[in-house]
Design brief:
About 75% of the residues lie in helices and about 0% in strands. It is mainly α. The longest helix is centred in the middle third of the chain and has 53 residues, at about 125-180. The termini are far apart.
Length: about 260
């Protein structure tokens, strides 16, 4: 039967056989597993590829790696190396389209290169072993750089959303402090803006430079918004002025509008 659950059972049986150092049994179970998975994941074969080419799927690469380990343990180093090379091709293709699995695939690539180096040393290919070591070091450094770039981009996006929400909330706060609000519409608008700002604060990274200043502004507005107009006006305007200075310090042009005190 060619069912994905049967393949999973075969993989588990192969892993157990490796623990017991039953290499022939392990080889048989993993061979059955990859035979089934090649059928199940046939849709993932590269377009225009050969019929016997492995599908580009993480479940395929995992089994290839285990088959290589078994071959290595039995002393079939060249066979192990060829199998690891097949695994490597799949992992490199997966890495090009990786999203939430990026770290897992990266770790699998590092492990793959470690085993390729071991195989090269066993067959006395010292230059090849050195090359694999260099590739592994370069791969590790490139992943760290990519991860830092992704985190930096994420922080920039969060900071941008936080700034936009801060500007809207500050405008609503100034209107609420300077204009009469018989209908209560300005208070409702401020409350909505405060909720939106709270969401952006919670979503932003704690390392975001502006987060603490925006948090102080939010807390100050919340503290005074329910007080009478004569009492709330100065503290709210002061909080708005402090936030304005922070925003200007971050390169933003903030110009205050003179509001009429008439209510609508």
């Amino acid at each position: 039967k060619n069912h994905i659950n049967i393949a999973a059972v075969k993989f588990q049986q192969g892993a157990l056989a490796i623990q017991r150092e039953q290499w022939e049994q392990a080889w048989m179970h993993f061979s059955d597993c990859i035979r089934i998975r090649r059928i199940v994941y046939a849709y993932a074969r590269p377009v225009g590829g050969k019929n016997d080419e492995d599908p580009t799927h993480l479940e395929i690469s995992c089994v290839l790696h285990e088959l290589a380990r078994v071959a290595f343990s039995q002393g079939y180093f060249k066979q192990a190396m060829n199998t690891l090379k097949s695994e490597r091709v799949i992992l490199e293709r997966l890495d090009e389209t990786a999203d939430h699995r990026a770290e897992r695939i990266h770790q699998a690539r590092l492990t793959n290169l470690t085993w390729l180096r071991k195989c090269a040393k066993e067959i006395n290919e010292e230059d090849l072993a050195t090359n694999y070591s260099s590739e592994r070091s370069s791969l590790k450094k490139s992943f760290v750089r990519r991860k830092n770039d992704d985190e930096g981009q994420k922080d920039n996006q969060q900071s941008g959303s936080l700034i936009e929400s801060s500007l809207r909330c500050r405008l609503a706060a100034r209107r609420f402090a300077l204009e009469r609000d018989k209908s209560g519409s300005k208070r409702e608008d401020l409350i909505y803006c405060l909720q939106e700002l709270s969401h952006e604060i919670n979503a932003s990274s704690s390392s975001t430079a502006m987060r603490s200043e925006v948090l102080k502004f939010r807390d100050e507005i919340v503290k005074w918004k329910d007080e009478p107009m004569t009492k709330r006006r100065q503290p709210i305007l002061k909080a708005c002025d402090l936030l304005r200075d922070v925003l200007r310090g971050n390169g933003l042009q903030v110009n205050d509008t003179i509001f009429s005190r008439r209510s609508k």
